[in-house]
Amino acid sequence: MQRYLLRRVVMAGFTLLVVSLLIFVMSRAAGDPRHIYLDDYSTQEDWDRLTVALGLDKPYYQQYGIFLKDALRGRFGESIAEGRPSMEIIIERLPATLQLGLASFIFSIVVGVPLGIFSAVKRGTMLDAVGKVVALIGQSAPVFWLGIMLMFLLAVKVQWLPPYGRQETSSIILPAVTLGWFYAAANLRLLRSSMLNVLDSEYVKLARAKGVSGPKVIWKHALRNALIPVLTFSGVTLGSLVTGSLVVETVFAWPGLGQLAIKSLVSNDYPLLQAVIIIFTLMYVTAALLVDVMYAYVDPRIRYA
After folding, report:
1. Rounded distance, CA 130 to CA 239, Å?
2. Which H, E and C letters describe 181-232, residue by residue?
3. CA distance 252 to 259
4. CA 1 to chain centre
5. Fewer Cβ close by (within 10 Å): the C or N end of the chain?
6. What DSSP line would sit under the chain, residue for residue?
7. Mean pLDDT of all residues in 246-270
8. What pTM was computed for the model?
9. Is the Cβ–Cβ distance between 154 and 176 less than 8 Å?
10. How far is the C-alpha of 214 from the C-alpha of 196, rounded, in Å?
């Protein structure tokens, strides 16, 4: 078990290292950052001073070493637009993104998993048809359109929920449902298919033949094995919900990292954008690592593979 976990931790660290290298190369390929900081009225002395301050007078491998060392310390330079440390701005926005991602993840599990189970158990019934409709809407409707429609119906027409912002506790409901509906639909279809395969397996038929009760067969024998693919997707979902909220945060004016990334991209604020990408990658890799750990506990065959 310890060797399995060590391999996963090493792979996660290697992934972060590769991403940091890609970010460094792309930031250099995007152009000379001195043109962003300096205007037409800057002198040669300003240019030379900034060259030394940014470390551009050193070879690329030394620049990458400095960049990596600063990243490990949580230092990503100052935002060009706001003139503050990039990490300070990220820390201010991070709670809103984590809150939205967690709420969307809970919605996708609470809605998708029970509907997937009951759709498989009650195959061909009205409940199964309802699950198919929920899955169809969630996987076919564009996120921005779904958000606008929910805003129009629930916030403008009936005025049950706030249309945008993060002022009230109920403000998170619309963006969380919008962001989590696709993943709820995916969990529903994935678990339904997995449950159907497991319920038709020989060991489930043997358990039924031995007189094991129906609920025990479903919840103890079938569900645990059917959850393996759902668990994999849920781990990817958790990372995607946190890092893929750009559109939803823009539609609902949610003050998170997604909206911050769009803002920094539009304003060419590359130190801030660079920091946001690294934080997004760190959260995604951490979520994937947690899934690997959960895998080993749910299915002992994986840890010895």
Report:
1. 28
2. HHHHHHHHHHHHHHHHHHHCCHHHHHHHHCCCCHHHHHHHHHHHHHHHHHHH
3. 10
4. 27
5. C
6. -HHHHHHHHHHHHHHHHHHHHHHHHHHHHT--THHHH--TT--HHHHHHHHHHTTTTS-HHHHHHHHHHHHHTT---B-TTT-SBHHHHHHHHHHHHHHHHHHHHHHHHHHHHHHHHHHHHTTTSHHHHHHHHHHHHHHHS-HHHHHHHHIIIIIIIS--S-SSSSSSGGGGHHHHHHHHHHHHHHHHHHHHHHHHHHHTSHHHHHHHHTT--HHHIIIIIIHHHHHHHHHHHHHHHHHHHHHS-HHHHHHTT--SHHHHHHHHHHTT-HHHHHHHHHHHHHHHHHHHHHHHHHHHHH-HHHHT-
7. 81
8. 0.74
9. no
10. 15
* Whether 242 contacts 236, CB under 8 Å: no
Neighbours of 16 (CB within 10 A): 18
pLDDT digits (tens, 9 = 90+) for 99-112: 888 888 889 888 88
Residue type, 231: L
Amino acid at 260: L
Structure tokens, 58: 């050193």
